[in-house]
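# nightly structure sweep
# worker-07 picked up a monomer target from the shared queue
# config: single-sequence mode, recycle default, output format = structure tokens
# input follows
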Amino acid sequence: MSVTPLPDSPTPPTPLPGALKGHEVTELLHAWGAGDAKASEALVPLVYDELRRQARRALRREGVGHTLQATALVHEAWLRLEGQHEARWESRTQFLAVAAQMMRRVLVDHARTRRALKRGGGGTQVTLGDAANEVAMSDGVDVLALDDALSRLAVLDPRKARLVELRYFAGLSIPEAATAMGVSQATLGREWAVARMWLRRELEP
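# output follows
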């Protein structure tokens, strides 16, 4: 796949009904996965705004002084998405879930770079969840500690780890995450509560 540059100031896409837009995105994802470079170019204006929303949601939880901007996070994540040569794109929600994984990697790499530049200084602080589902932490959470905790959780319970990733890095609601994961909302609601308790225990000093 060739790398498709993202616009610095993207032109807003022509408004489309939600169902039609989702169908068009899915068709373009299938074509992109089949090696159609033009499909990647056509996909950009349809998903760019949503990717920026994901980036802003993730960056809102970053501590004061974080230097990575939403546009830069989207661009870096997009480059990594373009590198997923073996990916089998299935739907818009699946694509956004993978985008969340890429944003997680970008944020973690950025935090590691900042820590190295500070010669072992403190990591970037974040908070978990939204206002209604906040994980109670006294001074926020080190994004590197969060990444390590999620890696440990993935060994114990991959689905809960993916749920936290979708909720934190993609900012998906429980209904949206349920759609992306193919699991009932009731089940994910219970698993989200358990995952938050586990993370609180793992991440509190």
